[in-house]
Amino acid sequence: MKALKFQFIEKTNKDVYIIGIVDSDKLVEITIFDNSHESKVGNIYRGRVINIVKGLKAAFVNIGLKSNAYLYLGDDRLEEINEGEQVIVQVSKDEFDQKGAKVTTEYSLRGNHIVLMPFNSDIKLSKKIKSIDRRRELFTLAKENSNGFGLILRTSSEFAPEEDILKELNCLIEEFNRIEDSRNFIPTPKLVRAKEGNREISINADVDYVITNDNELYQKIKQTNHGDRAKYDGRFSIRYSEKLYTTFKSLFDKKIELPNGAQIVIENTEAMNVIDVNSKKYFDDYDLNKTILNTNKSAAEEILKQIALRDLSGIIIIDFIDFIDLNEKKEFLEWFTEESKLYNNAPNILGFTKLGLMEMTRRRSINSQFIKERKIDDLW
Fold first, then answer.
1. If 0-12 CB within 10 Å is exposed, 13-18 middle and 19+ buried, where does residue 260 land?
2. Are residues 50 and 125 in the same domain?
3. What's the CA gap between 213 and 11, in Å, rounded?
4. Same domain as 310, residue 258
5. Kind of pairing, strands 273-279 and 314-319?
6. Extended strands (E) in 12-100
7. d(Cα 361, Cα 363) in Å, to the nearest integer?
8. In a domain, 333, yes or no
9. How many domains in the chain?
10. Largest CB tally within 10 Å, which of 3, 202, 219, 371?
């Protein structure tokens, strides 16, 4: 019988959401976010340009967050914006570690049925709208009433009355004009428009079912096309599965013990992530090369899992046990590169440095700040 793949969404008593994917009884993906600390992506701010760095072709803008936001200007706009100037910007990427949020001056306004894009004139429709006739009707409606603005017709517009869509369009245009008129108002910095609603929880399309202990969320899922796969269990918690919870707890640990006696130590610094493989087991001379290879492979499997679950990103350096046989070192690198491709958002393996350290880079796909900055006790 094929093992089931499922997604769980646990809401803790501290309003923290733990969202995971389990495949063949193994935890393969995890996301944690504190519902009381919302993402700022989509928020629109009136900010002030603090300084312009021509070498980066960028400006740093005070929008009232912990760090100044990064605004890329490029060659075309480098001379158009001055230090001290007030600007309207929208957050496109949250601040992370010591890096400020990324913002853009080409902001958009999101409504229930449409997204107004004031800085281009494109008309786009959600790919989820399948009816060709309805797509044609919506495109014509948008084109004839856009007033030169760009528009995105969201999925909900498929069944929305024409008058509701036009009414929302006019409201968004009026709101855009108010925001532009307030460009030089005080105080600055100021939140001009907050994004609508709480952080969205995405349901994985490639799972057999979704289970949650949050009845309110369950009722919402039931109203979507995932409704037939939704299950509700008010007692559900990852803590009640020893196997899953053991893996989950390890994400908060600096040191991880492996069954073969090796140990992995994971250090997060501002510049990079450093992972050290230690062997506490005595190696004798009998088949030493094979022992080193097997120990490094065992450690590598756990390291790749930890990188994926912790969503480690940027530069990652791994100090494996030194190889004696150069052919086995080459074999290990080839194996490790192929093994890494089994994971989503696979790292880019750069190989061994002259010092014998494995070097790789990886893009950040989700915000793993919770695991970096909190303890497991902060969840419940």
1. middle
2. no
3. 7
4. yes
5. parallel
6. 16-23, 26-34, 44-53, 58-62, 69-72, 86-93
7. 7
8. yes
9. 4
10. 371
Q: Do 69 and 20 belong together in one domain?
A: no
Can you tell me the distance from the alpha carbon of 217 to that of 211, in angstroms, rounded to the nearest whole number?
10
- Structural domain including 366 reads 251-373
Residue 361 contacts residue 310 (beta carbons within 8 Å): no
84 with 158, same domain? no
Whether the bond between 187 and the residue before it is cis, its omega within 30 degrees of 0, is yes
User: Do 286 and 347 sit in the same domain of this protein?
Assistant: yes
Enter the pTM of the model: 0.63
Distance of alpha carbon 323 from alpha carbon 296, whole angstroms: 9
322-378 residue pLDDT tens = 998 899 999 999 999 999 998 888 999 999 999 999 999 998 765 555 666 667 887
Residues 28 and 130 in one domain: no
Q: Are 94 and 40 in contact (CB under 8 A)?
A: yes
Within a domain: residue 184? no
- CA distance linking residue 89 with residue 182, whole number of Å: 13
67-86 as b/e: b if 16+ CB within 10 A: ebbbbebeeeeeeeeeeeeb
The angle, 0 to 180 degrees and rounded to 10, between the axes of the packed helices 326-340 and 288-310 is 20
Q: Give me the CATH number covering residue 76.
A: 2.40.50.140
Alpha-carbon distance values, 262 to 32, 202, 278, 288, 304 (Å): 29, 37, 6, 15, 15
**Assigned domain for 77 exists:** yes
**E-state strands within 173-285:** 190-193, 209-212, 230-232, 255-257, 262-268, 273-279
350: tokens are: 């750069």
pLDDT digits 0-9 by tens, 178-234: 999 988 888 899 999 887 655 567 777 778 999 999 998 899 888 776 788 899 999
Residues 6+ apart with CB under 8 A from 177: none
